Amino acid sequence: xxxxxxxxxxxxxxxxxxxxxxxxxxxxxxxxxxxxxxxxxxxxxxxxxxxxxxxxxxxxxxxxxxxxxxxxxxxxxxxxxxxxxxxxxxxxxxxxxxxxxxxxxxxxxxxxxxxxxxxxxxxxxxxxxxxxxxxxxxxxxxxxxxxxxxxxxxxxxxxxxxxxxxxxxxxxxxxxxxxxxxxxxxxxxxxxxxxxxxxxxxxxxxxxxxxxxxxxxxxxxxxxxxxxxxxxxxxxxxxxxxxxxxxxxxxxxxxxxxxxxxxx
Amino acid sequence: xxxxxxxxxxxxxxxxxxxxxxxxxxxxxxxxxxxxxxxxxxxxxxxxxxxxxxxxxxxxxxxxxxxxxxxxxxxxxxxxxxxxxxxxxxxxxxxxxxxxxxxxxxxxxxxxxxxxxxxxxxxxxxxxxxxxxxxxxxxxxxxxxxxxxxxxxxxxxxxxxxxxxxxxxxxxxxxxxxxxxxxxxxxxxxxxxxxxxxxxxxxxxxxxxxxxxxxxxxxxxxxxxxxxxxxxxxxxxxxxxxxxxxxxxxxxxxxxxxxxx
Lengths: 264, 261
Hints:
The complex is a heterodimer of chains A (264) and B (261).
Chain A: H1 3-43, H2 49-52, H3 55-68, H4 70-102, H5 104-119, H6 126-133, H7 137-161, H8 165-173, H9 178-216, H10 221-230, H11 234-262
Helix pairs in contact in A: 3-11, 4-5, 4-7, 4-9, 4-10, 6-7, 7-9, 8-9, 9-10, 9-11, 10-11
Chain B: E1 8-19, E2 22-34, E3 39-43, H1 50-57, E4 65-70, E5 73-74, E6 82-85, H2 97-101, H3 103-108, H4 113-125, H5 141-154, E7 159-163, H6 171-187, E8 191-196, H7 199-205, E9 208-213, E10 218-224, H8 227-230, H9 234-237, H10 241-260
Parallel strand pairs in B: 3-8, 3-9, 6-7, 7-8
Antiparallel strand pairs in B: 1-2, 1-4, 4-5, 9-10
C-alpha cells in the first residue's frame, strides 16, 4: 500500500469510527431520556403510576423477586419453553417440508389445508392444547411449536421447489435417485432458507409461549403478567414485559450470530 | 459386417413436449451418428432443440418416436458411460472443489483414495493444482469450467455431451479453454457431442458439424470439417485459409434457416 493509500484508509476509518460513536451515543441518550421521562411523568402522576409503574419500582421488583429466588425460575421456565418451541417448530417444519417434497401428490393434496392452517391464528387452539396436554409446560411447548411449524413447512418447501433446475439436471445425469437428489442438492440448496426460518421462528415461539403461559402456566414470565394483572399489580406486569423485551432481544441476537456462523 | 455400431445413433427421433399450455414438437425426424472418438458439433440458434438432443442421449428424456442408441444399445435412463457438461459450470457452491470433482462418483459408489489421487492429478493436468480445498466462488469462470470438465472426466464416461460450455466465458478464456478441451478429449480418446450457436467454435473444435433448423428442431445440413483443418488445434484452425470457406458454408446453411422464419 502506498503512503497516499494508507492516509486515505486512515481518514476513512476515522470517519467510520466517528459515525459509529455518534450513533451509539444517541441511542444511549434516547434510552436514558425515555427512562427518565417515564420516571418523572410517573412521579408527577401525569402517567398513572398504578398502570404504568415506573423504572425505579420495576428495578425494585426485579431485585426483590431475584432475592426471593422466584425470578430465576420464571425466566428459566420461559426461556426453556421458547428455545424448545422454536427448535422443535423449525425441525418439524423442515421434516414436513421434506415429506411433501418426496410426495408431490400429497403436497398438492395438502396444499389448501396448509394455506388455511397457516392463515389461522394458532393461539386460538390454546384451550385445546391445555386439555390435550395438561395445564403445564408440555401444552405451552406445543403452542410454541404450533405457531412456527406450518409457516416453516411452507417456506422451506417453497425453497425446496425453487432449487436451481441445472443442479438437478446435473445430479440426474450422474444417475442420482430421488433420495440422493434431496440429500446432495435440494436440502443443501435450501439451507439458507432454513437458517432464516430459524431466525423468524424465535420471535414466533415467544408469542406461543407467552400466550400459552397466559392460559395455563404456574411459572414463567407470561404467568407473572397474569398474576400481576389479577392482583391489579402492574409493577409485576411491566417487570415481566421489560424482562421479555430484554430476553427476546438477547435470544434473537444469539440465534442471529449462530446462524451467521453456519452461513460460513 | 465387422464394423462397430456408432457410439451415438439417433434414428427418426421426434420429441413432443407436453405441458399445461399445450403440446409442442421440439424435434422432428432427427437422425445423426457420432463414431467412436469423433468430435461432432450441433450448431443451431437458441430454441432449435440442441440441448434436447443432449438430454435424450443422457437418458434424461425419452423420444416420442424413433430410437436413441449408445454403442448399439437403446438408451434407458442415465448411463455411467455418458458425461454431461452443462452451460453454466453448475459446481455445487456448498462443496469444495474436490467435493465437486468427486460428486459423480459419490452418487454411484464409495469414493476410494485412488479416486482422490486421480482427481488431484486431473486437476493438475488442467492447470488447477492446489485448489482442492477452495470453494467454487473463489475461482474464475474459466477455472470453474475446467473443474466441471474434470468432474465429467472423473466418472470414466467415454461419451461426453457438452452443452455450450464456453458461452459464459470471456473471449480469451474461451479460446484457451477450447484448446484445452480438445487436447484432453483427444488424449483420453473421448467421443464428444458439442452443442453451440457459435459457428467459429464449431469449426475450431470438431470433425463434423450438423446444422439444426428451428421449431421443430431438425437436421438441416451436415458438413465434414476439412481434414487439414481437423488435424490442427482450435487456435491454429482459426488462422487457416480453409477456416473462412467452411465458415461461409455453415453460415449459409444457418442463414437459409433464418430466411424461413
